[in-house]
């Protein structure tokens, strides 16, 4: 591996840095975007069942908020109704929307960075290719004729940087698209959960009693 890095020249170092960052982001997003941490399948039904006759105690709401991102959104709506039993429907919906935007922001964290790496890696590879081509042309000049060693090094710089850039860009783009699709699915789940919770919570407000 070290011999490959030497043959590729200094342009490969930014690509190595990109590969390390991309791998770290992919592992982190795999961990953070698990279903159990975002939107457990039965959580909404359990919350509706527990709150069918009365609103829960504050410690129960706090545990719900710590359960997952969906739990945090649902807990925000519960706290709003507990704090203001006269809360109107539009205010309750705005509360859910605000909590949902915060949840979406957390789910999308680092995705732009991963997408940037996927877009920038081929350009860094192109930079390495250009530098390698410069060395190839330089090896053909001079009064002594061509320099085989410099020619070979220029070819190595061009090819290794191009190949390594594609090895970084393709997986990064694939995982970026995959995580973006997961986030879109979770956003839909959060929106549907909020739509079910609003009429359920309005039963506990003064105007609907």
Automatic annotation (TrEMBL):
Any one biological process term the GO annotation gives: protein import
Transmembrane segments: 12-30, 114-138, 158-179
Main localisation: membrane
Compartments in which it is found: Cell membrane; Membrane
Protein topology in the membrane: Multi-pass membrane protein
Domain annotation MotA/TolQ/ExbB proton channel: ranges: 67-191
Swiss-Prot/TrEMBL keywords: Cell membrane, Cell projection, Cilium, Flagellum, Membrane, Protein transport, Transmembrane, Transmembrane helix, Transport
GO CC annotations on file: plasma membrane
PANTHER family reported for this sequence: MOTA_TOLQ_EXBB PROTON CHANNEL DOMAIN-CONTAINING PROTEIN, PROTEIN TOLQ
Similarity comment: family membership: Belongs to the exbB/tolQ family.
Name of the protein described by the UniProt record: Biopolymer transport protein ExbB
Organism for this UniProt entry: Caldimonas thermodepolymerans
């Amino acid at each position: 591996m070290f011999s490959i890095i030497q043959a590729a020249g200094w342009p490969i170092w930014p690509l190595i840095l990109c590969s390390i960052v991309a791998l770290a982001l992919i592992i982190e997003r795999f961990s953070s975007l698990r279903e159990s941490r975002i939107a457990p399948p039965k959580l909404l039904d359990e919350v509706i069942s527990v709150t069918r006759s009365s609103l829960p105690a504050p410690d129960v709401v706090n545990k719900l908020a710590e359960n997952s991102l969906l739990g945090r959104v649902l807990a925000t709506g519960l706290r709003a109704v507990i704090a203001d039993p006269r809360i109107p429907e539009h205010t309750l919906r705005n509360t859910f929307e605000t909590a949902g935007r915060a949840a979406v922001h957390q789910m999308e964290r680092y995705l732009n960075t991963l997408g940037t790496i996927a877009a920038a890696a081929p350009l860094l590879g192109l930079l390495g290719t250009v530098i390698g081509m410069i060395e190839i042309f330089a090896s053909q000049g001079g009064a002594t004729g061509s320099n085989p060693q410099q020619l070979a090094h220029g070819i190595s710089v061009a090819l290794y940087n191009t190949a390594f850039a594609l090895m970084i860009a393709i997986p990064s783009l694939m995982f970026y698209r995959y995580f973006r699709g997961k986030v879109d699915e979770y956003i839909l789940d959060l929106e549907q959960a909020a739509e079910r919770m609003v009429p359920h919570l309005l039963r506990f407000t003064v105007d609907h009693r």
